[in-house]
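Input record (one chain):
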Amino acid sequence: MHRRWIEWTPARTLFGIDLRTLALFRVLLGFYVLFDLLLRARDLTAHYTDQGIMPRAVQIDQLNSGSWSLHLANGPAFFQGLLFVIAALAAIGLILGWRTRLMTALSWVLLLSVQNRNIFILSGEDNLALLLMFWAMFLPLGARYSLDRALSRTPDYTDNAYFSVATLALLIQGMSMYFFSALLKTHPIWVSEGNAVYYALQLDYLVTPFSLWFRQFQGAMTGLTYYVYGLELIGPFLIFSPIFHRTFRTLIMVAFMTMHLAFCLFLEIGLFPYISIVMNLTFMPSWMWDAIAGRFFRKPSPAIILWYDKGCTFCEKTCRILRVFLLLPEATTRPAQEDPEIGAELTARNSWVVTIGDDRFFKAGGLIALLSASRVFRPLAMILSFAPFRRLGDRCYDLVGRHRSGFSRLTTRLLPWRERTVRIGLPTQVLAAVFLGFITVQNISTLPASPFSLPNAFINPRQALGLYQNWTMFAPYPEMNSPWPVIPGELEDGSQVDVYNGRIGPAVFQKPDVVSRVYANYRWRKFLSNLEDNSYEDGPQILALNYARFLCRNWSEEHPDLPALSTFKIYFQVEETPPPGGSKTPKPRLVWSHNCFG
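The corresponding structure, as predicted from the sequence alone:
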């Protein structure tokens, strides 16, 4: 026992990733893209078209020379919506594991493209998601629980353990976010004072109602400050510890995930906790999957066989796909003609046959039997067992059966047999090693004591590939100002209006009960906070000008029966965070005056 405790874990285990973990990573990454697109689509016109806050001509001037975006090719909402739909289809293909490597590459291209369409609404969430999608292209994400796997006649990966330069890079990338973020937290409020969480939770424009209640507990906030800093600094080393590997990896992985779940309670930061948890789940080791398999399949099941009509490629592919996606690895698929009795019954009933032990099932009953055999999908079997659903299922089966030749032609095009799954070869791994060195140099260059700065020859490809890294989450210290917008204006007839909230009457400068709810969503919060930040700088106020023009257009579109908006002023109520025990007083700050006709 003592020797097991001190035994060193080999590097392949430390830096390898289970293929089932990569399948989970693929699915969760695909769902992230769908969630992200859905949230972005709420402001499709405002954020991504020439009629919004950032016309293409303006955005192009703000991009680095190496940056690019397909979304900048055209300005109407229809074109942007079309790219959103293509990105959603690619994400669905990624979730299903259909032509996985192609779908991953397409998802990365469109994710980078949409981010570069409006860089003033981006946050750390976008940076991390893009990096994870980049590394995903170097990994066999479709080796498990995928259409590629189901349709592969000669699967390449027979062992779940997988190690490559790309797995090393993905895991190091994830922990780099924490480690370099800790190194950038150089202000005394993190270590010597322990007040960083206090200052973070004083940012009323960013925090949740729960934070407004929680910040009365000064001692708890001090403890959380040291916990977050210590976890970010030490956690990345412990998670790769070769001794006590199981214990440390499990504890640190869970600690990071619970930290991000806590962020959901405290801060309005969009999908950042979700994508961070997805990143942490890449550390999920093989023994966890084995334990889950033991929990769900601990009892030996009767033999499960899916019998299909020989020569019907659609039938065979359907059986293979069901076996994979219903999580029935012990099931087998066979042509019914191999067994005379089964073959005769298939012909007589005009139905596939599912045998579980000595029991036989047909048409919709076969699907219900398979769902019942799968512990994950068993509840669905109970629903489909109701007589109306079962009769409907039989009719659908008969309908499909009458057109199976057409479905066979369709699946021949869309779901062709794969002689082998796509292996990740040596050239790809060499390229992954190059990019691993690339991001390491990038991260080191962000440190205050860095001995070098990055030349344009480095920056341009970095921007072109979306490999930018600068993990300044509350570093070197949290913001000290909390702003929210107030925009009073006048219509052509002299009526006073609240332009920001789109209503008649004077704008209210009084502090709302929950400041974070002033913002429509976290993308708008990011844009408006950038607008306020940039207003302190000398030079043209690009964000304020284009936001003001958008407000003029938007008022006319949303209030066609009212006089046109004439003039308005963009104020921000700004609260400076005092030291613990102090009080806050908002101060109005004028950042822009605008005449819609001038």
